[in-house]
């Protein structure tokens, strides 16, 4: 098993998170994402923010401790294609990340595993990019 799940494709998502450092740790430990930019300048929301990710994926996070929507703030879920799909369950167990729906969900041409991040956002981890469509 590799150290991280190998997320390969998505450009970026802007998202509010309840706790910036807790969210960064979650994505770092599960996917190996790194802080790419620390935004210490005033931003339009005037809140702490950071951009994390890898060469293919960026998550722009804005801290909102009062966030009450449990991940339903306009994002139903977002998905990552996972190169080492067969490592998902063991990596999630190792990091105490709950796997939803009892494990992989079977589709016509692919499988997906669904998890939640610390702010309650659903993340779909897919075996085949775009579900093979």
Question: What report would you give on this structure?
Answer:
The chain has a single domain (12-132), classed as 2,3-Dihydroxybiphenyl 1,2-Dioxygenase, domain 1. 14% of the residues lie in helices and 30% in strands. It has 133 residues and is α/β, with parallel strands linked by helices. The two termini are 28 Å apart. It has a 4-stranded mixed β-sheet with strand order 1-4-3-2, with helices on one face.
Task: Write a short abstract of this structure.
This protein is an alpha/beta fold and 133 residues long.
- For the largest beta sheet, what order do the strands appear in spatially? 1-4-3-2
CATH architecture heading: Roll
What pattern of helices and strands is seen along the backbone? EHEEEEHEEE
Tell me the helix content: 10-25%
Rounded to an integer, what's the Rg over CA atoms?
15 Å
Major sheet size, sense and barrel closure: 4 strands, mixed
What is the CATH homologous superfamily assignment?
2,3-Dihydroxybiphenyl 1,2-Dioxygenase, domain 1
The assigned structural class equals: alpha/beta
Distance between the termini: 28 Å
**Oligomeric grouping of the chains:** single chain
Helical run tally? 2
CATH class, anyone?
Alpha Beta
CATH fold-level assignment = 2,3-Dihydroxybiphenyl 1,2-Dioxygenase, domain 1
Overall residue-averaged pLDDT value: 83
Model regions low in confidence, pLDDT < 50 over at least 5 residues: none
């Amino acid at each position: 098993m590799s150290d991280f799940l190998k997320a390969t494709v998505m450009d970026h998502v802007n998202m509010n998170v309840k706790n910036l450092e807790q969210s960064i740790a979650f994505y770092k430990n599960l996917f190996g994402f790194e802080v790419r930019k620390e935004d210490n300048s005033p931003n339009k929301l005037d809140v702490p923010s950071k951009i994390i990710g890898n060469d293919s994926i960026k998550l722009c996070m804005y801290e909102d401790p009062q966030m009450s929507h449990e991940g339903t703030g306009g994002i139903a879920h977002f998905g990552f294609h996972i190169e080492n799909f067969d490592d998902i369950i063991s990596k999630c167990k190792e990091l105490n990340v709950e796997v939803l729906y009892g494990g992989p969900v079977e589709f016509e041409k692919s499988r997906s595993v669904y998890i939640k991040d610390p702010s309650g956002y659903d993340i779909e981890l897919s075996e085949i990019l775009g579900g093979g469509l």
